[in-house]
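Tokens for Aminotransferase class I and II. Go.
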Amino acid sequence: MDYETPLFFHVMEYADAADRDVIDMVSGNPDWEPPEALREGLREYADLEPDRFQYAPSAGLRELRAEIAARRGVDAEQVVVTNGAGEANYLSMARALERNRGNEILLTDPVYPYYPGKTTMLGGAQRFVATDDEGQLDPTAVRAAASDETAAIVVNTPNNPTGAVYPAETMRELVAIAEEHDAILISDEVYDHYDLSGEFASALETDSAHRIVTNAFSKSMAITGFRVGYAIFPPELVSDARSRHMLVNVATTRPGQYAVLQALRETGPDYYERNRKRLRKRVETFTDALEAAGAEYTTPSGSFYVMARFEGYPGTLANVERLIDEAGVAGMPGEAFGDSRREWLRFALVTPRVEEAAERLAAYFD
């Protein structure tokens, strides 16, 4: 089987090997501080009894699952704590395909590249539905693409790479389409704390046995290296998801779960609002420079990515490498996200050097 390895690692390695200063705008690693309570939790953990350094319960620490469940309005038994949102999405897609209600996964175009990669790995077939120029997904187009072969519809809101935030009506319609075809809507909501529009709607707002919601603390707490995520399953799908999780990972990090739990309990909304404020300022700075450079660009409603199109400079891997070598800015090629954004480049606004990067791009394309 030929797996589809995402281009992220190639671009990062190329940038690291460059013989000049390069501003990294490739990966979604927040550069800001995690919650102080999270650091305190880690310090506390170092002094706990030796039994706390052993396997965690496979489905996750009971207290963490209960905290997540209370915040999301579900039963704790529906929650599986995973090795980041990556494993949460893998388990969700696997469960959808294991139901034997079809072999097709509906994905958006543009798409986060790990979804088609997971589809291939799990033996499913990909089918794409194009979003509009702002990244919004039309449920009518999804309904037209869905069939009895549809095992799952996978969406990401707020979206990577477009920055779109799907409204409540869209989410309700997507759940309804999944129900009509006995499929599963998988809603990856890892950027929910970076909704800049106030329009974010979780799939959990629609009660259904045909939807799974995935999330993680990687982005919201700026801890992508901790690998603490979760999936919320319908009761009838959770048992086999737990079994697969146990066979693949046994459990995820115990100290990470402990620290995340402390951060959840002790971090107020001002922490998240400060980060959104920082992000709004970066979006304005970066898009103003793109405007001055004569580029076409997206203004994200959520997440922390901007896509840009420069005349005569399509979003190929070769052009991304040229940009690293000649401008000292590393972004992602649009072709990594599907056919519809091949003319575009994607930049992650998770560096304090956003203004400098924008100036370099403006000078390069002047």
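The chain has twelve helices and 13 strands.
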